[in-house]
Specification:
mainly beta, Neuraminidase
Length: 717
């Protein structure tokens, strides 16, 4: 195909689009599905565990509190009154102490993600004590849960609050204090995270965070009078993905009144008494993340100038996400990253002796342990970690597709165990990347097979030539001159060997998307020194003709051709080239009609647009909703703020589909409604994730540290 033929085809597309618009097709998105990827999420298998805070711990002392199902994290040991306990268990069969022992249940409040949506649960469990050897043999000295009651604490109703992040719960009297993201602040790149209080008996919910402000990691004082939060205040989020430069505010728990900033540059607060706070921050002097102590005045006005602050943990290691218990001035619990360890562990820090006491490394040295918390009587330390093989329960729990609650009844929503998914024209197959190869699978999980073995990213189907799949092969996040090419693969042609290379110059050619008649392909290329959009023959590639669509010293990328053929959507940093800030644009295939669809805000990112089956809307990923949790409290995410959104082509009806503190991306919109149930496949459940990369860096290497000796741990006891 010659270039002039391509231009002729582009004119045909515009005429076809005109007639389609005149006919006003009523094709609906009803009965469609959206799939996307969440970085690492399907490899998380978190449960909450606890160890005694006294004797040197052993594996026999570790109690797994949560049930070995779902994603369970960020726990809190409550001090529940007998009346509230009776209320929580009002619809439950009363649990009896096992074996006639006069014991009390271990009580826990925690975040659990089920069907892709989070809620806060109360668990009461009885467990056997392995140190009670009166009737147990040596082989039986293992903790066992003998009775359990689970109660959801928040009633998730349909509507705008049905889907949201729930995080960092705490029980104060009969009120649950927690973070939720169910209210849209209406401003791009503004976090939806706010602190709420729900009265458990009535369900009455009150917002404690002022509008226009984002609050994280609430902690209620021992008396329940005050709540401390890590907050942006009104300065907003500037795109940080490591240590947020939040400030710590304190306000009245009952209604959020008398709000005052007490600490500049601090996160993850916790109380010892109503006048003593611990928190973490990165030291400006030596760059180690350490725990600090803030003493508030008991009389007079509270302000940052009236608060005394001193460093608690020494440099030489990172110590963060501190935990305290009421009145305990002997020790705190912290998560640490030591220079000689590749794992995050929970340790105690003796406030009197100023030394660390190791806990989790002694029982599971090669596992990450996150976000410790302490029981009210200071006898137990809780945390979450991978639950391990002992909880697989003899069946596969690893999911190919994880069903999520969808805010739209017409669209089923799934998280896929892979990246860059795309639907076949009929919606009966899904192509996706599972590094380093490309795979095809049926939506029910059957007939999964690899169609390309090499490193690749992005997938697309030809809408006319059945079984023809395209991908970009080469390294991701590479420069314009890096060798990346587009190849086509006939997945149903058993006689074909390998893939057909469609680009010839190797100058970072990627993100193919095919016209609705199957003849042309739009893609991005760095062949002129900048990443711009080009159109070529979808069957023969560049040899069949090449036409440049956009031109400029910026990056145009991640393109998608509409089902009607009249528009091409793409992401671009053309307003501020090289800044990393991307917005969504639309352009006709002949290069006319360029307009911006989504404004990301200063420094924002809006990427990976894909058209709905009817061509009237786009699905995309964006940091429009800011950030939902302190990044240090989670595993590693390159951009822990990506959420999935949809928008109509006229810029109206912007909808947020996902709510979590992970990185959601690379969505695809298919023509068939997939039944909203999880799709399992043959891999056993695993739990492996990357630590926050920035915690792997050792600050000020080669510098002698005054407190290095104090950072040397000792065993518990």
């Amino acid at each position: 195909m010659k270039p002039v033929t391509i231009l002729t085809c582009l004119l045909c597309f515009l005429l076809l689009s005109f007639f389609r618009a005149t006919a006003d097709h009523e094709t609906s998105t009803r009965g469609s599905s959206i799939i996307f990827t969440t970085l690492g999420k399907l490899d998380y298998a978190f449960d909450i565990f606890t160890l005694p805070a006294s004797d040197p711990p052993s594996i026999a002392d570790e109690v797994q509190i949560t049930d070995g199902t779902y994603l369970n994290f960020n726990g809190h040991f409550p001090s529940t009154s007998p009346s509230l306990l009776s209320f929580l268990l009002r619809d439950q069969t009363l649990i009896q102490p096992p074996g006639g022992h006069d014991s009390s249940p271990l009580q826990l409040i925690y975040v659990t993600e089920r069907n892709g949506s989070s809620n806060i649960y109360y668990d009461a469990v009885y467990y056997s004590d392995p140190r009670d050897t009166r009737s147990r043999t040596a082989l039986e000295l293992q903790v066992e849960i003998t009775a359990r009651v689970q109660v959801p604490l928040l009633e998730i109703k349909q509507g705008k609050s049905a889907i949201s992040v729930k995080d960092k719960p705490a029980l104060s009297g009969e009120n649950l204090i927690y973070v939720s993201t169910h209210e849209d602040p209406g401003k791009p790149r503004t976090s939806w995270a706010a602190v709420y209080s729900t009265e458990l008996r009535t369900g009455l919910t009150r917002r404690l965070t002022p509008y226009g402000v984002a609050d994280f990691s609430p902690a209620v004082s021992p008396s329940g009078v005050y709540t401390a939060v890590a907050s942006y205040g009104e300065k907003g989020w500037d795109g940080e993905v490591e240590m947020l430069t939040t400030d710590i505010y304190v306000f009245l728990t009952r209604d959020g009144a008398q709000r005052v900033k007490v600490v500049e540059n601090g996160g993850w607060p916790c109380w010892v008494d109503d006048y003593t706070l611990f928190f973490h921050r990165r030291s400006e002097k030596d760059n180690w993340i350490s725990v600090y102590k803030a003493i508030l005045p008991k009389t007079g006005l509270i302000s940052t100038g009236s608060v005394t602050i001193r460093r608690v943990t020494p440099p030489g290691l990172h110590a963060f996400t501190p935990a305290t218990s009421p009145g305990n001035k002997k020790f705190i619990a912290v998560a640490t990253r030591r220079p000689n360890s590749g794992y995050r562990h929970v340790e105690l820090f003796d406030l009197l002796k100023k030394e660390f006491i190791e806990l989790t490394r002694l029982i599971s040295p090669n596992t990450h342990h996150l976000n410790p918390f302490i029981s009210p009587d200071s006898t137990r330390i809780g945390y979450h970690k991978c639950r391990g093989d002992r909880n697989i329960k003899d069946k596969s729990t690893h999911l190919l597709l994880e069903n999520l609650k969808s805010p739209s009844p017409d669209i089923s929503l799934f998280r896929i165990d892979g990246s860059f998914p795309s639907f076949s024209p009929k919606g009966d197959r899904i192509a996706y990347v599972d590094f380093p190869g490309v795979y095809v699978v049926n939506p029910d999980g059957s007939n999964r097979r690899q169609i390309y073995p090499e490193t690749a990213f992005s997938t697309a189907w030809n809408p006319v030539h059945e079984g023809l799949v395209y991908t970009s092969t080469g390294p991701v996040f590479a420069s314009e001159s890096t060798e990346v090419d587009i190849v086509s693969i006939h997945v149903d042609d058993v006689d074909q060997v390998g893939a057909k290379k469609l680009t010839t110059d190797g100058q970072n050619n990627a993100f193919p998307s095919v016209s609705p008649d199957g003849k042309l392909m739009v893609f991005r290329s760095g062949r002129t020194g900048y990443k711009n959009l080009y159109i070529m023959d979808a069957i023969e590639g560049e040899k069949g003709g090449l036409h440049r669509l956009t031109e400029g010293p910026w990056t145009d990328t991640m393109c998608s051709w509409s089902p009607a053929g009249d528009w091409i959507a793409f992401a671009s940093d053309r307003e501020n080239p090289g800044s990393g800030s991307f917005e969504l644009y639309l352009i006709h295939p002949n290069g006319t009609g360029l307009r911006k669809l989504v404004q990301s805000g200063l420094g924002g990112r809006t990427n990976h647009p894909t058209f709905s089956p009817d061509g009237k809307s786009l699905v995309f990923t964006s940091d429009y909703a800011g950030i939902s949790a302190e990044p240090i409290s989670n595993p590693h995410h390159y951009q822990p703020y990506g959420e999935i959104f949809t928008i109509k082509l006229d810029g109206s009806d912007l909808k947020r589909l996902t709510h979590n503190s992970f990185e959601d991306g690379t969505p695809a919109w298919g023509p068939q409604y997939i039944t909203p149930v999880d799709v399992e496949w043959g891999k056993k459940e695993e739990c492996a994730f990357e630590e926050c990369h920035w915690l792997n860096k050792t600050p000020n290497q080669g510098v002698k540290l005054a407190f290095l000796k104090a950072s040397k741990p000792r065993c518990a006891g």
